[in-house]
Design goal:
- With 113 residues, the chain is of the alpha+beta class.
- The chain has a single domain, classed as LytTr DNA-binding domain (OB fold (Dihydrolipoamide Acetyltransferase, E2P), Beta Barrel), CATH 2.40.50.
- Helix content is 22%, strand content 42%.
- It has 2 helices and 10 strands; from the N terminus they run βββββαβββββα.
- It has a 5-stranded antiparallel beta sheet. Strands 8-9-10 form a 3-stranded antiparallel beta sheet, with no helix packed on it. It has a two-stranded antiparallel ribbon with strand order 1-2.
- A hairpin with a 2-residue loop joins strand 3 and strand 4.
- The two termini are 24 Å apart.
- The mean pLDDT is 86.
Length: 113
């Protein structure tokens, strides 16, 4: 899937998946954080986005991250584990997700090198 068609006010907007940095849950809505643009609030739950974007990583209950935007991560021996995105934005990783994410993060970091 290269693009997503998202409801935006009274119209629909086509968004390239690669421009999505991360998705943040806000009740029954989701804030879509895009590269170089203002975030978009859409009336789609994070669970539905997770189904539509299987390559995105669930780093905690309320957040999905596009792995292609992860620059580095710190999950080992950290009191506050996090992933860092391309614009030096750090997002906290849930302790429950660390074990499941560790192999995926290691593989995606090796693939980028």
């Amino acid at each position: 899937m290269d693009t997503l068609l998202l409801p935006h006010f009274t119209s629909k907007r086509s968004i390239p998946v690669q421009t999505i940095e991360y998705l943040e849950a806000m009740g029954n809505y989701t804030m879509v954080h895009l590269m170089g643009q203002k975030p978009m609030l859409v009336a789609i739950t994070l669970k539905r986005f997770e189904e539509r974007l299987p390559s995105f990583l669930r780093i905690h209950k309320g957040m999905l991250v596009n792995p292609s935007h992860i620059v580095t991560y710190r999950i080992r021996y950290e009191s506050n584990p996090f992933v860092e995105l391309s614009r030096e934005r750090q997002l906290t990783v849930s302790r429950r997700q660390i074990r499941r994410l560790r192999p995926t993060l290691a593989a995606s970091t090796v693939a980028k090198s």
